[in-house]
Amino acid sequence: MKLHWSPRSPFVRKVMVAAHELGLADRIRTVRTVVAMIKPARELLPENPLGKIPTLVLEDGTILYDSLVIIEYLDSLAGGGRLIPSSGMARFTELRRHALANGFLDMLILWRNERDKPQPLPALLDAFALKTDAVLAALEAEIGAIAQGPTGIAQITLAIAGDYMDFRFPDLGWRARCPRLDAWQREFADRASMRANAIVDA
Amino acid sequence: MKLHWSPRSPFVRKVMVAAHELGLADRIRTVRTVVAMIKPARELLPENPLGKIPTLVLEDGTILYDSLVIIEYLDSLAGGGRLIPSSGMARFTELRRHALANGFLDMLILWRNERDKPQPLPALLDAFALKTDAVLAALEAEIGAIAQGPTGIAQITLAIAGDYMDFRFPDLGWRARCPRLDAWQREFADRASMRANAIVDA
Question: Which parts of the sequence belong to the GST N-terminal domain (chains A, B) (predicted)?
Fold first, then answer.
């Protein structure tokens, strides 16, 4: 399988960590594809017209995106139900927690894009800050339950969001503001799957 | 079930159309919640700290988002496998097509937000236009296969994206550029589920 990949994309990292957890990492061949909101990767558009990574190309040419779809596919290759519970409320709880962590990443990326513009819109920056405060408070309140849940797509995405904040928003001070989330994240970030796929600013 | 709802959100419309197709529309009580990127709905943040709609609150207080998670949940209430195939490559094809249509909606909303700013970034507007051209070309090429697929979450989301373009991007001329997509979309948009949940600029 070919994966459009970048060492800085948290969504790519989700797929790589998931593949490692599932024992499938050696089946993935990565191809470096650099995308940015203001600079689409033209060579990627025939395979993913949204211009987003990760994009996975199977041996038979079938193309899969986004990261959730790719991870559910990899999970099915590994027998199913390993990173996303197969059914019942356990599944929907996992997917809702994933949506929270993943939607947070989406928002952080938009915030960073706005912040780095020549003329950022103050009201938009304020809105991102307000929602980030709400997300951090919600995560700090829920981390006990999340930590007791499965080592699945929600935990993976949340741990990656923590590292992403360190990487792109060092002034946010999330670790001091969310001590329980911080403690859990440090432990999760020490997993082999996370260390083997660290964010690299290269 | 309580649904945070707005008559202008294409993501809310996905859920409403899906509920109608599944025969569950009368189980949903809608609450109007107005959100905008520069104006988060503070009253929504305790239930969804991302400040996004749709957000579904079940009778026991369980909260679900985003629209994909809600629709898969509603699908499970209706027996499962009706709007998203339960397993196999049919499932991943449906989810990838959904990711295309849904990612397109995400992009159109960001494009509109940028376009309406006092100082839009020209490079960003150009990037949205380039990716939109790529998406429309891909959809026009794939619509034959999509039309032969199930009446599921991909078709629903794609038909809603068509109406959203008419609503917010009338100058895009997508119907003239994509005649096959146009013909398919007109027919799908005539379904009772779509007509019962039309976009209203109110």
Answer: 1-82
Residues B190 and B101 occupy one common structural domain = yes
d(CA B89, CA B60): 34
pLDDT tens digit string along B137-170? Answer: 999 999 999 999 999 999 999 999 999 999 999 9
Count how many Cα atoms sit within 13 Å of the Cα of residue B162 in the half-sphere of its side chain: 25
Note the pLDDT tens digit of each residue in A96-152.
999 999 999 999 999 999 999 999 999 999 999 999 999 999 999 999 999 999 999
CATH classification at residue A156: 1.20.1050.10
Give mean pLDDT, residues B163-188.
Answer: 98
Residues with Cβ within 8 Å of B5's Cβ and at least 6 positions away in sequence, in order, are B12, B16, B30, B31, B32, B33, B53, B54
Predicted confidence at residue B199, as pLDDT, reads 86
Which residues does chain B have within 8 Å of residue A111's beta carbon, measured at their own beta carbons? none
Residue B201 lies in a domain: no
Q: Which of A19, A49, A77 is the last residue of a domain?
A: A77
> CA-CA distances (angstroms) from residue A172 to A166, B45, B195?
8, 19, 45
Kindly state whether B50 is in contact with chain A, defined as any CB-CB distance less than 8 angstroms: yes
Does the distance separating the beta carbons of B138 and A40 come in below 8 Å?
no
Nearest residue on chain B to A50, judged by CA atoms?
A: B131
A89 near B CB under 8 A: yes
Q: Does A112 touch chain B (CB under 8 A)?
A: no
Domain that holds residue B187: 88-195
* B96 near A CB under 8 A: yes
Distance CA B198, CA B43 (A): 25
**Number of domains comprising chain B:** 2
Residues A41 and A102 in one domain: no
Instruction: Find chain B residues with C-beta within 8 A of A104's C-beta.
Output: 50
Q: Which of A3, A7, A31, A14 is nearest to A201 (CA)?
A: A7
Instruction: Give the residue from B131, B142, B143 with the most A CB atoms within 10 Å of its CB, the best one to mutate.
Output: B131
Residue B33 lies in a domain: yes
Tell whether A61 is within 8 A of chain B (Cβ): no
- Report yes or no: A172 at the B interface, CB cutoff 8 Å: no
Q: Are B13 and B167 in contact (CB under 8 A)?
A: no
Provide the CATH number for the domain around residue A43. Answer: 3.40.30.10
Predicted pLDDT at B142: 98
User: Low-confidence residues of chain A, pLDDT below 70?
Assistant: 202
Residues A106 and A191 placed together within one structural domain of the fold: yes
All residues of chain A having their beta carbon less than 8 Å from the beta carbon of residue B138 are 49
